[in-house]
Amino acid sequence: MFALKLAFRPWKLQPLSQLLTFITLTTLLLLAGFFGSLTLSLPEIRKRLDGDHVASVFIDPALETSNLRPIQDQIHLSLGSSPVSVEFIDSDTFLETIRTTQPELAKEVAALGGEKEWVAPKFFSLRGTLNESIIESLRLIPGVEAVSFSGKRFKPILENIAAIEWLSRVLFGAILLAMVAILTLLGRLNASIFHEAEGIVAQMGGTDAQARFPSRLNPILLAGGAGVLSSLILLKLNPWFIAKMVSLSPYLRGMESVTGPTTLALLGLGFMIGVLATLVGPTAGIKT
Amino acid sequence: MIQLQMLSKGYAERKRVLDQVSLTLKKGDFVYVLGGTGAGKSTLLRMIATEEFPSEGKISLFGYDLATANASTLQAIRRSIGYVPQNVRLISDFTVFENVALGVSLAGARVLRAEVRAKIYELLDRLSLMNLRDTPASKLSGGEAQRVAIARALARGPELIIADEPTGAQDFQNTWNVMDILQRANISGTTLVLATHDREIVRKLRKRCAILSHGKLMIEEALCSL
Description:
The complex is a heterodimer. Chain A is 69% helix and 9% strand. The two termini of chain A are 24 Å apart. Chain A has helices at residues 2-7, 9-13, 15-50, 69-79, 91-99, 103-110, 116-119, 132-139, 155-203, 208-248, 260-280, and strands at residues 53-59, 84-89, 123-128, 144-149. The relative contact order of chain A is 0.18. A 4-stranded antiparallel sheet of chain A has the order 2-3-1-4. By secondary structure, chain B is α/β, with parallel strands linked by helices. Chain B is built from 7 helices and 10 strands. Chain B has helices spanning 41-48, 71-79, 96-106, 114-126, 142-155, 172-187, 199-204, and strands at 2-10, 16-25, 30-35, 56-61, 64-65, 81-84, 160-164, 191-195, 208-213, 216-221. A 6-stranded mixed sheet of chain B has the order 6-7-8-3-9-10, with helices on both faces. Classes of the chains: A alpha+beta, B alpha/beta. Chain A binds chain B through residues 2, 5-6, 9, 12-13, 196-197, 199-208, 210, 287-288, and chain B through 49, 51, 71-72, 74-81, 83, 89-94, 98, 101-103, 105-107, 152, 156.
């Protein structure tokens, strides 16, 4: 009980510095939580975008739609086990899709009657994880006139996401270091308070552990308390934050809010920072 | 119980404050350490209380040589000592009761049981501190703080009490109150080493005395004559 009371002495004697440190630690842990959640969720988004390719396999206009089955089978064979959706777009479907964006062109092509088969393309639209070798094998299928492939359409976005991911990691680490630094400085500020009590406890036969326990407990309780508060705030605010991020760009669709284990990790991180601060922080000298 | 052999203490900037002092105390002894200002009384008491260590010579407490005692032995020795330093050190924001109870808990009482509380209250009452038991130490006068330090030392039930001018800040009534309590502790077997300037105390409570002058032990008497 006395150890706990001694640990809380700085709250009594220097409440403002303790309170400011607590608020700062809570804010920093909250930021660490946000950056940590970005670090966890961005690789998933990058992976998804990286595997999201589109290819159009254009069919010889001379081929009848009823004779497309062998080509479709050949396409599936070339794709192997790659997760790719295959959809056939005939002339009518194509005209439907361009009707909203280019109504005049759609009207002109439709007016061609039976000739439209030669103007409007017939093609298979492929969406999923594709690569150059698959595209090459698609080109070799008899009846395929051309293959267009947009393999690198997300390249700049992927680079941007990777940059944000790294920045989040660096900021996450920097925040943790800043927290240790803040607690170490607070430890120096509190050293005189603890030194007085440590001297008395040591003189009365207390062990080193007993004498130093309050000064070690203080940063652990402070950072741990900040961990509890920040994890609760994160649990509450993270869905809102993620919703804002997703609304910022559709590419971020699928970004997930932090879950219980992540907030627990944040709580644990707070305590861990407190423990780390006691290891690198100042220790008042006790003559034994 | 206490054996001081050719004890010397010097600081770099000063000449020796203690010079080859030898003294032996048995269990249950009551010894006054007397001398003028700067005679080395407080230094001697700090060394017996293991607050300082000698530059030369040997201190043996409870059969342990302090020079070779490891940390845990030193802690055990300290737990057997009740030390009242001249500059009373209390935890300023702890109450009178808490300051006394802290000493008891460090002596081994993990939980302050009812009888321990009762003992502390009795001590506080005898030292006229009962009405101040919930007062923070920072609000006490010098004399009150000194009595709290005495209560803290006594509450631990130590084998040895070292008191440096324990009545220095007390009025007449409290001086004799404190001396009565210390004498009772001595009668029940506690060894007492007491530094004082108060000749009246030494005259009325005649005990063994060691008189220091300029760091040297000048006179040692079985019954102080002054």
